[in-house]
Every structure is written in C-alpha cells, then in structure tokens.
Task: structure prediction
Amino acid sequence: MGFEKFGRKSFTAVTKTSKFVDLLAEGKVEGTVCKDCGAKFFPPRADCAKCLSKNMDWFEMPKKGKLETFTTAYYAPFGFEADPPYTMGVVDFGGGLKLFARIAKDIKPEEVKVGMDVTIRPLKYDDGQISFEVSKT
Amino acid sequence: MKDVAIIGVGQSSFVRGYEGSIRELAFEAFREAMKDAGITQKEVDASVFCSAPEYDKQRSPAGVLAEYLGLIPQPTFYAESVCSSSSTGVKLGYSMIKSGLHDIVVVLGFQKMSEITSAESQERMGRGADIQWEAPFGTMMPAYYALYAQAYMAKHGLTHDDLMNVRIKASTYGVINERAVYRKPVKPEDFKQGDPEAKMAGPVAWPLRVGDCCANADGSSCIILANAEKAKALSKKPVWIIGIGAASEAVNMAARPDFTKGLSVGYAAAAQAYKMAGITVKNVKVAEVHDCFTIAEIMAYEGLGFAPMGEGKQLIREKATYKEGRIPVNVDGGLLSKGHPIGATGGSQIRTIVLQIRGEAGPMQVAGEPDIGLVHNIGGVGLYGNVTIFGR
Result:
C-alpha cells in the first residue's frame, strides 16, 4: 500500500514513511523517533533533523491532547469540493508533540472549543482512502 | 549604511483578468521603473524575476521575460518564496550589488493569477504549505490563517469587529489608490451576519469571512537597485536599503510553537532588519505589512514591535495605523484592497514606501516627510518572512 492512500486526497505517492498508512490500517496513529538521539517527530520523518541520523523507529502517538486551535472551511480547494463544511485543527499532546487533522463529523461545530480535551483515531473513507481524525475523548 | 539604493520603481495596475500575457504584464512595471530611473537597458547588469510557480504555464520565466524586456545578454535568474518572492528578489539584488559583482540590478515581480480558476488557485496556494501531510486534509491559505485568528480570539480577546476594522482601513486607501484592484469602500454593514446583501460576511474558513481575505489579482512590480556611486550619479532622490531581515519556519502546523504568538518569522526578520539599520521601531514613520488576511496585519503589528504580543488589536481600535495615526500602515490599500498578485506583492510594497520617502505618494502621502519606512512581506503561512527597511 502506497502513500497515495493517505488522506482525503494524497499529493505524494512515494515516501519512506509510507508505513504510516499501513499502521493507520492497523488502527494506530504513529510518529517516528530517532534511535540515536531520541528526538520524536510528528508528522513522521524518515530522517532525523536534529542529529542527521537515518535510524528511525515508530512510536504510537499519545491518546490524550488538547485542541490548540481550529477552523471550519466553508470553501474547499480543487479536488475537495464535495467536503465542506469541514473542521480542521491542531492538537497539542504536550512535550512538543502536536498534530494537524480534520475534526470528526460527530463533534458538532458549536461544541468545538479551543482547549477542549480530544483524542485521535484512524479513519477509513468509502473510497478506500485512509486518514486520521480528531475525536472526543 | 548607504551601499545599495533604489533608483527606480514601477508597478502595473493590479487587476482581475489582465488582458495580456505574463511578458506584457511584466513590461508594464518595467517600463515605469526604467523611466523613473532614467536609464536604458545597457546600464542594467543583471535581472532577477520573481513569482510563485504554476499560475501560468511558462517554466523558467527569467530568460523569457529578460528577452522581452531587452535585458539580454545580461545574466538573469528566478527567485521564489511564494508571496514574498519579490522581497527575496530584492535581497538577492542587494547581495549581488554589495558583493561588487554588479552595479545595477532589476528586480521584477509578476503574477497572472487569473489564468486559473479560484478553486485551482486555492489548491495551488494550499500546496505552498505541506503537501505530504496537510494538503490531504483539504487545506487552503484562509484556513491556515484562520487557525491563528481562532487562537487570538480565544487568548487575546481579538474580535470579529477588530478584523473587520482592518478591512475597513484597507478599503479607505484602496478607494484612493488608482492602481488598486478593489476600489470600493467597505462599511460595517457589509459584514453583517445573516444578511444576504452583506457581501463581506460569508464564512470562508471560520472565523475568517470573505472580507477578511485579500483580493487575488494580476500584476507586476519592478524595483531597480544601484550601488552608491551609480545611485548618486543617476538619482536625485535615491532611497537606501538600510536594513534587511529574512527568516524561515517549519511548514507543518504541528511544528508551530504557539498560535497565540503570531508568526515567528515576523519577529525574527524584524529583529535582523532593525539591528542592521541601527534603528528601533520608534524610528519607523510609515510601513507596509503583509495583510493577506486581516489577522495577518494584527500579527504583523506585534512581530514588528508596533504593539506588544497579543495587543495588536489595540492599534486598529485606536486607529493608530491610519494615515494620520502614530504609525501609518498599508495606506495604499494593502493586499486586502490593493490586491495580492503573489510574486509582485513585495515589490509593490517597496514601491509604496519608496514613494512615501520621496514625498511622491499623492493622496496616500503620509504627513511629516517620512525619512524611514519599512516593508514586511510574508511567504506562505509564515513559512518565509522578510522585513526590509528604507531610508533617505
């Protein structure tokens, strides 16, 4: 399975981090950690920006985070026209780990608040695309 | 420091649907700048062309445009940092002259956005961010800046009225700038929620509305740089580049340290530029800042030190950034009303400040003969930041 499966629509087919999509299919949202210096990255990287090591491993992202900020898109770019409105946000897990994703449709727009407790979960679209989303704890 | 001066500035009108090709669009700004400088192409040693790619079909535009402008066989190349491409071009031109390689360099920014549809444009702009990890969610520029606006509203008490008032200020000057794409006034009732007649009120990427977003446009800008010897010989009113700062930041929103603190590149580039110029924020008499969205102008106030972090809203509440205010900002209409033809924007901002320092800004002229002006030009969602300071 290649990286073209990632997200609503992927713009990247080949990456050394394509295992991310396989892990999503197994129900896991994972980042990468440098085996040499311990630096953790999300989104995942195949190479360490801190010590320039290529010796990376996968680690599962924390389950509990806080929504740092969000936005609801009422227009969409080319290729996403069927989707609006959709809400996207940044989750802060502490310790420098954050992620950006769409917020699950089962959270009502008026319920979304800066600072709310959230978690993340993998998501499979009807067309076979695989992603992850921010959801209620 | 008086090593490199601007001896000529030019800008096309910023329009929707320019009736000509990119080379003809480039010619408009170039011709005006060359006449302003009073030189011929033989005196130009090199050229730098600046745009964001994929709006038009021309690959490697520098050689093509240089030929059309009569700038061959001199060296030419292409500079890109999305929305700040022509500020980057000016930094490169400055470096080429300061190094002694060249005496006179033309920096030309252009963009013909109308060659593609608005939805395609949103997709292109979204791909100026992280295409591997973010674009698959359906990101676009308004959504990214909305993340900052939301965080500012939650933490700093920024309101929709504050954002609206930035737009209203921009329109005040768009009305009097005959080169602006949006020349209509904007009134509070244009933002009234739930009123179908309120053309600025519709949500784009909440909390940002139609009126919070800059106007796409076609346009070109041209800045002609010269070394001190040439500038003194050729120009009655050379305007000197006295400070340059530039910085970069992580592309992915997951790597941004704190959304309530604005764009890190704004702070970093400003600090470098102030240091190089040997001035403080108090010396700046007039500024052009990157208001691609209303929230971006508020963040710019803070990054530049016009207001403390989180207090940018106070400047718009006090009307301190109007033409008559303590620190006039974007009195040419800014990106919001003058328009934002991506690759041309930085050069257009620089042209405005050069005209202000020369006292030639017409109805937009700031009183008190401003001697120092500043340009703040951001690329992407704070991916690149450029601050350039100009003086007499």
Observations:
- The mean pLDDT of chain B is 96.
- The domain at 4-116+216-234 of chain B is CATH 3.40.47.10 (Peroxisomal Thiolase; Chain A, domain 1).
- Residues 6 and 225 of chain B are 5 Å apart (CA to CA).
- The interface with chain A takes residues 117, 119-120, 122-123, 125-127, 130-140, 142-143, 146-151, 154-155, 202-208, 252-256, 259 of chain B (CB under 8 Å).
